[in-house]
Automatic annotation (TrEMBL):
<feature type="active site">
    <location>
        <position position="168"/>
    </location>
</feature>
<dbReference type="InterPro" id="IPR001674">
    <property type="entry name" value="GMP_synth_C"/>
</dbReference>
<protein>
    <recommendedName>
        <fullName>GMP synthase [glutamine-hydrolyzing]</fullName>
        <ecNumber>6.3.5.2</ecNumber>
    </recommendedName>
</protein>
<dbReference type="InterPro" id="IPR022955">
    <property type="entry name" value="GMP_synthase"/>
</dbReference>
<feature type="domain" description="GMPS ATP-PPase">
    <location>
        <begin position="193"/>
        <end position="386"/>
    </location>
</feature>
<dbReference type="InterPro" id="IPR029062">
    <property type="entry name" value="Class_I_gatase-like"/>
</dbReference>
<dbReference type="GO" id="GO:0005524">
    <property type="term" value="F:ATP binding"/>
</dbReference>
<comment type="function">
    <text>Catalyzes the synthesis of GMP from XMP.</text>
</comment>
<dbReference type="Pfam" id="PF00958">
    <property type="entry name" value="GMP_synt_C"/>
</dbReference>
<keyword id="KW-0067">ATP-binding</keyword>
<dbReference type="GO" id="GO:0005829">
    <property type="term" value="C:cytosol"/>
</dbReference>
<dbReference type="Pfam" id="PF02540">
    <property type="entry name" value="NAD_synthase"/>
</dbReference>
<dbReference type="InterPro" id="IPR022310">
    <property type="entry name" value="NAD/GMP_synthase"/>
</dbReference>
<dbReference type="InterPro" id="IPR025777">
    <property type="entry name" value="GMPS_ATP_PPase_dom"/>
</dbReference>
<keyword id="KW-0315">Glutamine amidotransferase</keyword>
<comment type="subunit">
    <text>Homodimer.</text>
</comment>
<feature type="active site" description="Nucleophile">
    <location>
        <position position="78"/>
    </location>
</feature>
């Protein structure tokens, strides 16, 4: 792999993704990892990420110069660039000129390999206090900026290079080209990491792990569990059984999508547990959001567990598939010993006494890579591009008690919003588009000649990177108007449509 050494800023994940976009496999390692351990991973190249703004900052992580005692290609970015310059005998100084944000880069004439043929005055994203004032011996300086006399350097003999700015952020024009020039032209790597190669590798790994044993997987209807199960099925076929708990809180067409389209596309053996009566029975009259979540979580575990035990009696199960993704792994400390932290994420908190070993085929992947894999595996487009949907489903989008009638009303309104978003070609512009039914609020309206006294629904389209923070999506007014007109015309119980214009924070994405 290409190792991205994380010096503590948020840029390491972004760098790792950009490297993968260049079709080269990358992994993030903490800066505290001993050099010997990094080298034991047999890295094709090492990238040093950004971090504190200065190598002189108190507590700034130290770069072990032993890293340079071998011939692995190294690329330093921002803090990594300064740390590299210092370790190799260059000079890093307080020049007094800080640069934050957009800066123009001036490539020095004949700008070497990294910046070859790039235009003068190239906008790049900087964030530094100290500057490299002298490159280490053997390095050619290839660019400067107003605040950074040495903004880029390279040594083609040792295959090391670095830049003061952040090539991984979108604000740096041509940043991806620069990164690729390091990977392909300086480090000599090939763009071979593709969806089909990932599938081949994973299929082999799963076969080796599972042998002839039986495997179970809980499908939530979401992308991650669907792709994980499809991958495992490709590897071991009929040794896999999936369980899908239909709790009656899904959106229009979603249960059918899993039961028909997904099975048709994959040929997976699916055990569907119809549990709507059970869930709605326990939810009757409950209005408190936390109470709703607790009931649904509890019933989910009960139901899945019962189905799993039934299946286990029929064919002894040894493995459970989980759709854990790479960001979960990195955020919970990376690498070893993290299996348990998020291990029950996708099936809604399964108890440990189920005693299955885990298979986590998506552990090294980002969400967009999982989607690409799903497409390559032949899953239906609507399933692969599905927006995130909360485990408790529509129950937390009905403000008030949940019953069948209210669920039907919300499903109808939600379907219209989804149809119009898709028709406008905006599915990929929003992160999620909850529609919320204010079931205990009524307002007066007029329709035809008559007075109505119906319920409002709230449109809550949001844009986000990771759901931790979000902003309300500025959907075109004509799309919103169309949704509003259709909902009030087609759903008799709803006579008013409102738009939620709250960011997160202070609002959460969901209303409950
Ligand atoms: P909030 O409402 O906290 O939601 O801003 C953040 C993201 O998490 C989703 N969400 C859930 N997902 N089980 C889930 O699997 C849950 O209980 C749950 N609650 C919220 C929400 O849809 C958004 O993407």
């Amino acid at each position: 792999p290409v190792l991205v050494v994380d010096f503590g800023a948020q840029y390491a994940q972004l760098i790792a993704r950009r490297v993968r976009e260049a079709r080269v496999y990358s992994e993030i390692v903490p800066h505290s990892m001993p050099v010997a351990e990094m080298l034991a991973k047999n890295p094709a190249a090492i990238i040093l990420s950004g971090g504190p703004s200065s190598v002189y900052e108190p507590g700034a992580p130290v770069l072990d110069a032993k890293l340079f005692d071998n011939d692995v290609p190294v690329f330093g970015i921002c803090y990594g660039f300064q740390a590299m310059a210092q370790a190799l005998g260059g000079t890093v100084a307080h020049t007094g000129s800080r640069e934050y944000g957009r800066t123009l880069l001036s490539p020095v004439s004949e700008a070497g390999t990294l910046l070859r043929e790039l235009p003068a005055d190239l906008p790049v994203w900087m964030s530094h206090g100290d500057s490299v004032t002298e490159a280490p011996a053997g390095f050619a300086v290839t660019a400067s900026s107003a605040g950074a006399p040495v903004a880029a350097f390279e040594d083609l003999v040792t295959r090391r290079a670095g830049v003061q700015f952040h090539p991984e952020v979108a604000h740096t024009q041509q940043g991806q080209e620069m990164l690729q020039r390091f990977l392909y032209d300086i480090a000599g790597l090939e763009p071979t990491w593709t969806s089909s190669n990932i599938i081949e590798d994973q299929v082999a790994a799963i076969r080796a792990q599972v042998g002839d044993k039986q495997v179970i997987c809980g499908l939530s209807g979401g992308v991650d569990s669907a792709v994980a199960a499809a991958l495992v099925h490709k590897a071991i076929g009929d040794q896999l059984t999936c369980i899908f708990v239909d709790h009656g809180l899904l959106r229009a067409g979603e249960a059918e999508q899993v039961e028909k389209d997904y099975v048709a596309a994959t040929g997976i053996r699916l055990k569907v547990v119809e549990a709507a009566d059970q869930f709605l029975g326990h939810l009757a009259g409950v209005t408190d959001p936390e109470q709703k979540r607790k009931i649904i979580g509890r019933e989910f575990i009960r139901t899945f567990e019962a189905a799993a035990r039934e299946l286990d009696a029929e064919r002894h199960i040894e493995f459970l598939v989980q759709g854990t993704l790479y960001p979960d792994v990195v955020e919970s400390g990376g690498g070893t010993g993290t299996a348990n932290i998020k291990s029950h994420h996708n099936v809604g908190g399964l108890p440990d006494d189920l005693q299955f070993a885990l298979i986590e085929p998506l552990r090294t992947l980002f969400k967009d890579e999982v989607r690409a894999l799903g497409a390559e595996l032949g899953l239906p487009e609507e399933m692969v591009q599905r927006h995130p949907f909360p485990g408790p489903g529509l129950a937390i989008r009905i403000i008030g008690a949940v019953d069948r009638h209210r669920l039907d009303v919300l499903r109808a309104a939600d379907l219209i919003a989804r149809e119009e978003l898709t028709a406008a070609g905006l599915d990929r512009d929003v992160w999620q588009f909850p529609v919320v039914l204010l079931a205990e609020v009524r307002s007066v309206g007029v329709q035809g000649d008559g007075r109505t006294y119906g319920h409002p629904v709230v449109l809550r389209p949001v844009s986000s990177e990771d759901a931790m923070t979000a902003d309300w999506s500025r959907l075109p007014y004509d799309v919103i108007a169309k949704i509003s007109t259709r909902i009030t015309n087609e759903v008799p119980e709803v006579n008013r449509v409102v738009l939620d214009v709250t960011s997160k924070p202070p609002g959460t994405i969901e209303w409950e």
